[in-house]
Amino acid sequence: MVDAPAVLLDRLPAADRPPAGFRAPHPRSLAYVSHTSGSTGTPNTVLVEHGGLDTYLRAVVRDNALGPGTVALQLAPPGYDASIRDTFAPLAAGGCVVLVERSRLLRAESFADTVAEYGVDTLLSTTPSFLGFLAQSPRAVRRLRSLRLVCSSGESLRPFLAAGGRALVGGRLVNQYGPSECTMTSTRYDVPAAPDTSADIVGTAIDGTVVRLLDPRGREVPDGRTGEVHIGGAGVARGYGGRPGLTADRFPPDPYGPPGTRLYRTGDLARRAPDGTLEYLGRADRQVKIRGHRVDPAEIEGALLVHPEVTGAVVTAETDDRGRTWLGAHVTGPLEGTTDAQLRAHLARTLPPHMMPRRFTRLERLPVTHSGKADRRALRATAPEPVS
């Protein structure tokens, strides 16, 4: 039980008058607490304030043209910060939110039936992994084509696009980028009907947000050069609960902003085009060196998904007992008649030799985390060591 007054949604006062006794929260007061996985697997508690959440929800409504006719599906799991976007952005616009049992959303056919039954036209929080899962069901694909808006986040969208996924979404497809430490989303990009799949474009900053690309000395890099993504503005969280040292490390002062402003150091790499558009280049801690070459596993995943029999792909970096780094590919799809040699021959059309996986593991379905992202930790734990 919650000791608080009840507000009946069908008996609200006029929109220009708040309910009796209502007092707007202070912008610096705590809005919600989220948890990230943390690089070590230990969750970090992220403290997000009302000012950042208010600015963000208003930007979501404007950027995505949400309104009284919007019917959005609550797709993000409760407890995941994206569920706040799913719930409150449509309501703030006067639209509707559809809530169903989570089990109905985890099967492609019942997901499609839910979209049809309730007239859903908007998905604000899906992942590329989930879109790839839906792409295997003709019924789900038909419903994807009926949607007005699909917003994707949480992972690189490039592999899905490289596999021809843009054609499966009939309306707008928006690639969202941003960490939980910056109130969910910091940039967005409207994916065109014929996207450039040679780059992972995440677009430009949303209102109230600034994105700086800095070198290791904290200096802004010029257009076209690679820098670490630092995010500032209204959405930057208060910090990590109970971890002042980590907060100080990850939330440094903004050397280019007004006094007292801070940045969040993401650990992501990107470069900026002259028109201000950002190209995401992957995690600094996920890119690996293979025989002296820097490799981004997302590029290999995208190449695998172009294969007509591959429906899902995740590439992980492993280390053998001699300290050598090798790549393992985990794939799904009807691959009974496709050999490893044939998969390597397919990759060799577009990739150099040092980007060839040494092992292909066939799975019925890729494991995902609670938030719907590919569970790389689970895949690494079960990866067999290749034969030398």
Architecture overview:
This protein folds into 2 domains: 28-207 and 236-242, 3-Layer(aba) Sandwich (Rossmann fold), CATH 3.40.50; 288-382, GMP Synthetase, Chain A, domain 3 (2-Layer Sandwich). It has helices spanning 50-63, 82-92, 102-105, 108-118, 128-134, 138-146, 158-162, 244-250, 297-305, 340-348, 376-382; strands at 30-36, 44-49, 71-73, 96-98, 122-126, 149-152, 172-177, 187-190, 200-205, 209-214, 227-233, 239-240, 263-272, 278-283, 288-290, 293-295, 312-319, 325-332, 359-362. It is globular and about 70 Å long. 24% of the residues lie in helices and 26% in strands. A hairpin with a 5-residue loop joins strand 13 (263-272) and strand 14. Strands 5-6-7-8-9-14-13-11-10 form a 9-stranded mixed beta sheet. By secondary structure, the protein is an alpha+beta fold.
What is the subunit organization of this protein? Answer: single chain
Question: What's the total number of strands?
Answer: 19
CATH topology of the largest domain: Rossmann fold
Q: Tell me what portion of residues adopts beta-strand conformation.
A: 25-35%
- Give the second-level CATH assignment, the architecture of the largest domain: 3-Layer(aba) Sandwich
Structural class based on helices, strands and sheet pairing: alpha+beta
Mean pLDDT: 88
Major β-sheet profile: 9 strands, mixed
Record the strand order, biggest sheet: 5-6-7-8-9-14-13-11-10
Order of helices and strands: EEHEHEHHEHHEHEEEEEEHEEEEHEEHEH
CATH superfamily name of the largest domain?
ANL, N-terminal domain
Morphology call = globular
How many domains make up the 3D coordinates?
A: 2
Helix content: 10-25%
Separation, N- and C-terminal Cα atoms: 60 Å
Radius of gyration: 22 Å
